[in-house]
Amino acid sequence: MQIEVLKSKIHRVRITEADINYKGSITIDEDLLDAANMIENEKVQVVNINNGERLETYIIKGARGSGVICLNGPAARKAVVGDNVIIISYALMDFETAKIFKPQIIFPDENNKLSN
Question: Which residues of the chain fall below pLDDT 70?
Answer without folding.
Answer: 116
